[in-house]
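Hi all, a correction to my earlier message: I attached the wrong file for CoA transferase subunit B. Here's the right sequence:
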Amino acid sequence: MALTRQQMAQRVAQELEDGFYVNLGIGIPTLVANYIPDGIEVMLQSENGLLGMGAYPTEEQLDPDMINAGKETVTASIGASIFSSAESFAMIRGGHVDLTVLGAFEIDQNGNIASWMIPGKLIKGMGGAMDLVAGAENIIAITTHASKDGTPKLLKECTLPLTGMGCIGRVLTDLAYLEIKYGSFILKERAPGVSIEEIVEKTDGNLIVPDDVPEMRLAV
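and the right structure:
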């Protein structure tokens, strides 16, 4: 069975390490804030000038002025800092973010990502994604393995305008967890109940399938 949005966020949250500074992109990546593993402390950074972003607020915690880069209301964790977007982008461009999690429309086997424009559709702009892919060395992309009509999103070559080139090293989809190396997608894990055959069928790019591909371990 394909992973839900919440399960995708849970799996990516397992990649967080104690002391990490982490930027979460718009969409599914923002959900990662709700699944930070016990026993570790990370600081979530937002392009609009918040370091120490917490989980989504309850009704009692709601503050309309406390938002993330996607204009969603958030909370601030203990020790959080609020500053200008100029300082926030200086942090990103200076390589001070340990992990970036981005949504994507397309990703190809060379680590290129298209995440900001679909011809014929109104998209507000690239936002901070271009700075994030240029300033970060550790990026995980999250997307569904295929679009609603079944078109693969893991491609030999992106067809949409690129956000960045050769910058994506890992991909988490609703079907699988993959690394990108040697001009290929390398299958590392599969979602519980998902067959390797389904993943192969829905992947357009070159896919390397090891002899043993374990199922993901998700939080209960």
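Sorry for the mix-up. Helices lie at 5-13, 85-93, 129-135, 196-201.
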